[in-house]
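Hello,

Following up on my earlier ticket. Below are the four sequence lines again, exactly as submitted.
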Amino acid sequence: MKDIIIERLEERGVKLKAVADIVYTLQKPYSENLSIDECLESVHKVLEKREVQYTLLTGIALDKLTEKGHIEEPLSSIIKSDEPLYGVDESLALAIANIYGTIGFTSFGYLDKNKFGIMEKLDTNHDKVNTFLDDLVAGIASAASARIAHQKRNEKEAKMKEEKEVS
Amino acid sequence: MKDIIIERLEERGVKLKAVADIVYTLQKPYSENLSIDECLESVHKVLEKREVQYTLLTGIALDKLTEKGHIEEPLSSIIKSDEPLYGVDESLALAIANIYGTIGFTSFGYLDKNKFGIMEKLDTNHDKVNTFLDDLVAGIASAASARIAHQKRNEKEAKMKEEKEVS
Amino acid sequence: MKDIIIERLEERGVKLKAVADIVYTLQKPYSENLSIDECLESVHKVLEKREVQYTLLTGIALDKLTEKGHIEEPLSSIIKSDEPLYGVDESLALAIANIYGTIGFTSFGYLDKNKFGIMEKLDTNHDKVNTFLDDLVAGIASAASARIAHQKRNEKEAKMKEEKEVS
Amino acid sequence: MKDIIIERLEERGVKLKAVADIVYTLQKPYSENLSIDECLESVHKVLEKREVQYTLLTGIALDKLTEKGHIEEPLSSIIKSDEPLYGVDESLALAIANIYGTIGFTSFGYLDKNKFGIMEKLDTNHDKVNTFLDDLVAGIASAASARIAHQKRNEKEAKMKEEKEVS
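Thanks for your patience. The regenerated structure is below:
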């Protein structure tokens, strides 16, 4: 299933490397020695979660169905115009952002107001409908970033415990 | 917009009166003197909220598009089989259940395990795809029930204050 | 840290075995061959999550501080009376219930309306303040149950894949 | 009850005017003709919600009890150090931010990373414990801002409908 997800994301113009770049920018200020490879690995881990996969399939389907004209009015215009009070795109993305705890919520909110990298590109590509996709990418990046925050904390605690035992 | 929503719900077999019946069953144990008319009025109030309207349009669209064969695999089979770990139907419904506070969450969870009335009918109608709709109905009923709980509490507090001022 | 949490739960009258019993009741209808030991192991896994630990420490502290009279009015009376519209106890418990996806929300709502086993005992022990604790126990049980649901699903998929490869 | 809340906020150094200033900064880019008075009125409306009141009382109590040394270790150190993975402060604040829909979530995330005005002051006042308070203020401001967004949209729609009827 994960391979299908990666394929669908690429079809819509999203490479995992571009998501890892967002994770790096989010998490770098808090984690010294962070590498892009760790960020990419964390993105992969997020995409292994079944609930994340199902949510991505649904959001991407809604973007594509809107593009193809299969969505009835008034919903079609609401999605096409990325109406700020729509909220369903954020609900889906938050379900992803949240999988490693509430810390993912705040990154998501930050990205929503400061779109950069691939998110900015998606947001300004007016040939396609990316109403769901740009939020979903922010959700994946937020979850991957939260995962690294927890991990780095665990490593630090393990190290502190070890030093204590040695001394 | 509210009229469109009511029309769409009726097209899918959901009359507001049937939703009000669920609200009545949920809320009756806590509110003496509760009438079906109050429950129906509360359902109407919930349906006036823009975010609720948008969420309903989206969920109903997904059910209908699945019925029509417009959703690609593997998502189509997941929605058709109402896969218990899918989660997107619950996410949308919870965004509705939650509009009058966390109290709506618990009613939703209860309804999800104890489907009755119109919910049971939707769940066992195998000609149609109602994966989203049965959860959305539970979401509306939970929100309408939470609204009544808050209202009854306000009335009680106002009365207590009045009695205190008189004495 | 996990040991501290287990100790605090036991001090408040909650043995992990009693939580595992709730998980078993929740999950048994969906998972044949489920054992109490698997449920207990799942409870342990939930308690290893840092965000769960922090939430439990906070909720238990609020119960104890209310008992000791350290909480100012009007909050003290609201917590003591387990006011149904309070909502903070549910918010904390839902943050736990949710760690393995939205499926945990529905179990939580069900338990909130159908308190049994240790939850019923906590709810009717009027010497102590357990406003937070009974919801937190429901949150742990819901998360542990969601974890098993995901796991059983993974096993089933792995088996299906294997059978496909053999044939 | 609302008066008690306003009093408690002021005791902790938070004037409603300062919260209204944050709302203004958040919402000004989207709403022309926005006045500080409208923002202040929106903050008042948020504080009238019972669930908001209860959440504020709880968070402020936790800050004060930590200051007074009534919270046991290890929780006391976690709250004092505003440990980034704690999460309970964000959970409470998000329950407030969310009362006018998911749109409040994104403002909250933005404020969490861009503390300004009264939030910055709270965050850098090291004589006091404001771990909960700075997030709660962000939650109130986010909800008040979401309320204005919905309201402005309603006004616009009413105007469009009127113009349509005239022509």
